[in-house]
Amino acid sequence: MPELTENTKELRIVGFLCNWCSYGGADTAGVGRFIQPTDLRIIRLPCSGRVNPLFIIKALMSGADGVLVSGCHPRDCHYAEGNFYARRRLEVFKHLLPVLGIDRRRFEYTWVSASEGPRWQKVVTDFTAQIHALGPAKFFADAPELDFLKAGEGVMQP
Amino acid sequence: MAIHEQLKKIILDTLPGVECVIGWGPGQDALHGSPVFMRKPEDVDSFMDTPLGAFGAVNNLALFLPELSGKKVGVVVKGCDSRSIVQLVAEKLIKREEVVIIGFPCEGAADLTKIEKALPEGREAGEVTGAAIVGETLKLSLGSEEISLGLADIKADKCTRCKTPGAVISDAFAGIAGKAPEVRDEYADLAALEAMSLDERFKFWEREMSRCIRCYACRNACPLCVCRDHCVAGSRSPHWITQTDSTRDKLMFQIIHATHLAGRCTGCGECQRACPAGIPVLLLKRTFNRGVAEIFGYDAGMDTEATPPLLTFQVEEAHIKEREWQ
């Protein structure tokens, strides 16, 4: 197992996990008391097919440093085909990040089944190490204060 | 007979069987045109009655078709516009039998932004009093001044990579469709962006999007943006974008637009043409177009029977290599 980043600042990683496999897998890892980095915040969804690619970019633009999507293995989807659609969408979506100036390694998707506690531990550890190697993400600025407001000119009086 | 005369004849023949025929007519000045909805034979007189003629037929008239669905309408199309219709039919957003498609051999359309940039310092498109196309040049008069511009320099970028100058599908065609040119889209515009570092690209979008005034002209000009009043950009729940004037929210909207067009966009460029701030918003859509072409070998708007790649799947994907966590 790669060394856990104990003494570095915790980063914000958002995980979108399907209820049936990966969330169960994360639970299995927890029940088995496998040591994992604590940077990941998990959001439970019914299926990886529920993952709107906009969730990923919204998270990244709102301050997340990395996003991980995990679902049932292909052919094992609880809803039979949700992850097949997810795979296509997420794979296409990957192309957008570098064009925006976001490192494409900040987003990964994978499949972890409910029984795969050790695999979950591996995925979380590797992905967290990957995000730590990249460091905190850049952040699109908030709205700048308008120049004329700064100067106090042109402000309509009530 | 000139192409636009032939088109007028076809429109007159089409009119009795349809609600209206959509074409291009005169606009607010010599350079601009605007869509015309021809219902009566006398309306046809204004068709392409502009100094720029077919070269000034910039609007993608497929835009109006989803809203007119249920009525039989005719529409005059450039090659790129016909691809939007093909995609709308493929996605069952319009019915093929409700549209009469009138094609013509397009020789490229103008980019009015390029023309405006070519005008002398401080002059605006609205000051152009006269325009005429003579051979391969466009002659403009601004009062007493005369300017001539090469047509190749003021053509829209999309025309340089066009592989469908004639309509992909049509019910009537004016003139003779030329052979489809052997053009490969090399995505040179994206390559130029990707020559920058990630940080520079990030700054590029911050700078470009800071000009956005959130007029949503890009969305309203997009023939494949069919949600209209139900766009998620206006939704409070989920609240995808806020009302604040931040580049983050402006960019977020462009990402929503591009994502909703992934595997659907035909690259007609109407979003970018409509942008009053000149933001290169088509780049984001072309990012997905390139990705979809790489993974699925799919080009939107070429086949009414094709299923868009994101509406289907294969159990074993031939061109998706997933990451191994070894």
* Whole-number total of structural domains of chain B: 2
**Mean pLDDT score of chain B:** 93
Number of helices of chain A: 6
> SSE order of chain B, as H and E?
HEEEHEHEEEHHEHHHHHH
- The percentage helix of chain A is 25-40%
Please name the two chains that share the biggest interface, counting residues whose Cβ lies under 8 Å from a Cβ on the partner chain.
A-B, 40 and 47 residues
How many individual β-strands of chain A? Answer: 4
- Report the portion of residues of chain A in β strands: 5-15%
Largest beta-sheet characterization of chain A = 4 strands, parallel
Share in helix of chain B = 25-40%
* Overall radius of gyration of chain A: 19 Å
What is the overall shape of chain B? globular
Mean pLDDT of chain A: 89
The structural domain count of chain A equals 1
Uncertain stretches of 5 or more adjacent residues of chain B: none
Unreliable spans of chain A: none
In summary, what is this structure?
Chain A is of the alpha/beta class and 158 residues long. Chain A contains 6 helices and 4 strands; from the N terminus they run βαβαβααβαα.
Structural summary, described in words:
The complex is a heterodimer of chains A (158) and B (326). Chain A has 158 residues and is an alpha/beta fold. Chain A has a single domain, classed as Rossmann fold (3-Layer(aba) Sandwich), CATH 3.40.50. Chain A is 37% helix and 15% strand. A four-stranded parallel beta sheet of chain A has the order 2-1-3-4, sandwiched between helices. In chain A, strand 1, helix 1 and strand 2 (40-45) form a beta-alpha-beta unit. Chain A starts with 12 loop residues before the first strand and ends in a 7-residue tail after the last helix. Chain B is an alpha/beta fold and 326 residues long. Chain B folds into two domains: 1-109 and 164-184, no CATH class; 185-326, no CATH class. Chain B has eleven helices and eight strands. Chain B has helices at 3-14, 79-90, 112-118, 151-154, 157-160, 188-194, 198-209, 217-221, 247-260, 270-274, 282-296, and strands spanning 21-26, 33-38, 73-77, 99-103, 130-134, 137-142, 145-150, 172-173. In chain B, the strands form two sheets. A five-stranded mixed beta sheet of chain B has the order 2-1-3-4-8. A three-stranded antiparallel beta sheet of chain B has the order 5-6-7. In chain B, helix 7 (198-209) crosses helix 9 (247-260) and helix 9 packs parallel to helix 11. Chain B is globular and about 70 Å long. Chain B starts with a helix and ends in a 30-residue tail after the last helix. The model of chain B has no long low-confidence stretch (mean pLDDT 93). The chains are: A alpha/beta (158), B alpha/beta (326). Chain A binds chain B through residues 53-54, 57-58, 61, 74-75, 81, 84-85, 87-89, 91-96, 98-103, 108-111, 119, 122-123, 126, 138, 140-144, 146, and chain B through 190, 193-194, 198-206, 210, 240, 244-249, 251-252, 255-256, 258-259, 262-263, 283-284, 287-288, 290-292, 295-296, 309-310, 313-315, 317, 320, 322-323, 325.
